[in-house]
């Protein structure tokens, strides 16, 4: 059941032109994911808008670059964990061991989250392709009116902009981490006349990484590893936001259709729009999409939310204790984590709100009109199951432990602050 039900069917979709030269051009489905697919190509992830390969050979051939990047990041995680062990056991000396451990734990935790998200993207590639096919069918449905298309485009445009800005923010943050050692080396050379070789991250290698020929290769390896973890994180997050935004938009459409099932034109006539079967089928499709999203993102988001509390605690501690030259870097890191968690919880909240609104839409329809009852005496009773089901909202959860809502974002902030105050008390 895990994979076979999500194998997509290859279909051809016509390109729809703008209905009027004076109106904003309607965006196409692939455009909503276009920037994210380009970002993920940096780490070799295949274009998930293409049909999912049905053979193992085809899947491996399309993912060679992604596998290489995954192995590179895996070694970085191993090297950082081994370096933390050396610090804790006293085999590696440093003057400020607490600050050094906090930096190492933050970097290692961020890399572990990125590694988990890359694994999730690879493992759930069939689920992702199935979701893309489902949402593409609904996006290009011929049953949509012009008003539906305008609402659809208006709902997705902000999400595309938000995910683009979030991706650029992560790129800036990683660039600060990657190239800060270059600035420090140049500054040390100018002030002291000595050229001290530094690295963006502290990773253990089974050889002398500062040797002349090896140093530049190791530095490039660490720089690209930083790019891998950033792209893996932002690619996973953007896919979640885009898919949940598509689901939220479909729920809005469903609410509008439910409310407009019956339209009273005047006292003598009744225009029937009671396409109840279509609404029920559409609702069931969206419930299956929600279950697929839950299966794809639940475990990884649980790790993300759990680790984010610790990471933000560490960043707050480093901001209050580190040298002023490092405060900007740690502040950027913490702001990126905060923004990431907020966006994930915000789009989870959108699904909860819009799925609940279906009950109000059904109740607000003209089910009580006498002419509606004359045409179908059971019409009002048929709405009861819809209202009852909508009163149990769709809620995505992080491993059935944390609901992905704004309230969870607040809880993560409170937990991080509690950890920080406890750490400060112990250290003082």
Automatic annotation (TrEMBL):
The primary site where this protein sits is membrane
Species per Swiss-Prot/TrEMBL record: Aedes albopictus
> Of which family is this protein a member?
Belongs to the insect chemoreceptor superfamily. Heteromeric odorant receptor channel (TC 1.A.69) family.
What are the subcellular locations of this protein? Answer: Cell membrane; Membrane
The protein, known as: Odorant receptor
Write out the entry's keywords from A to Z: Membrane, Olfaction, Receptor, Sensory transduction, Transducer, Transmembrane, Transmembrane helix
Stored InterPro entries? 7tm6_olfct_rcpt (IPR004117)
Q: Which residues cross the membrane?
A: 64-89, 101-122, 159-177, 224-243, 301-320, 326-347
Membrane topology label: Multi-pass membrane protein
Any keyword Protein biosynthesis?
Answer: no
Its organism's taxonomic lineage begins at: Eukaryota, Metazoa, Ecdysozoa, Arthropoda, Hexapoda
Instruction: Give yes or no: UniProt keyword Membrane.
Output: yes
